[in-house]
Design brief:
Keywords: Membrane, Plasmid, Transmembrane, Transmembrane helix. This protein is mainly alpha-helical. It contains six helices and no strands.
């Protein structure tokens, strides 16, 4: 009888191990699929946040002294920071629309809104990043302290595509408004 019970338990364990291995394989596959789907989404969100840093800093500077918005991390303050950030991005794309329209009309007047866009989005954050690197890591070489901000400026310039007729859907209305106002 003892041999029968041992054989029975061994068969039960073998059957359970196969199902356990199959379930583990399914979970590993689902986890890999989730990572493959979520990592690019997280990287895109990180990139959008980094590119929007000038407007986030502007919103923080505007809302910081306003005590009626509540505590530092209240919902009202966070919503106002998001609204000011969005307004800054909309203004930027309005200027971009003006620059593209003026460029199509001919002449050199388009360089003025283009230079403003370039300064706000590429040059100022690059200089701030350079200063941050210099003061946060004082042992950094001068070459690295300039290469990282220049790379960031090129990355943001590539993201905004200031010389192309393009705007993301969430600010397309502002871009079209700027384009129509300058094309007349």
């Amino acid at each position: 009888m003892a041999d029968y019970e041992e054989g029975y338990l061994a068969a039960q364990n073998a059957h359970g191990n196969r199902h356990s291995a199959k379930a583990t394989g399914v979970l590993v596959g689902l986890s890999a699929l989730a990572v493959v789907r979520l990592v690019p989404l997280a990287l895109r969100l990180l990139m959008e946040t980094i590119v929007s840093v000038p407007f986030i800093l502007l919103a923080l500077a505007v809302t910081y002294p306003l005590d009626f918005l509540g505590s530092r991390y209240s919902e009202v303050r966070m919503l106002s920071i998001a609204a000011i950030t969005y307004a800054g991005l909309a203004l930027l794309y309005w200027l971009k629309g003006v620059a593209i329209a003026l460029r199509r009309r001919g002449g050199r007047l388009w360089l003025l809104p283009f230079a403003v866009c370039l300064t706000v989005v590429c040059l100022v954050p690059a200089v701030l990043l350079h200063l941050l690197i210099l003061y946060a890591v004082p042992t950094t070489s001068v070459l690295v302290a300039w290469l990282v901000p220049v790379g960031f400026a090129l990355l943001t310039y590539n993201r905004y595509r200031f010389t192309q007729d393009y705007a993301p859907t969430f600010t397309l209305w502002a871009y079209r408004l700027g384009y129509r106002s300058a094309i007349k």
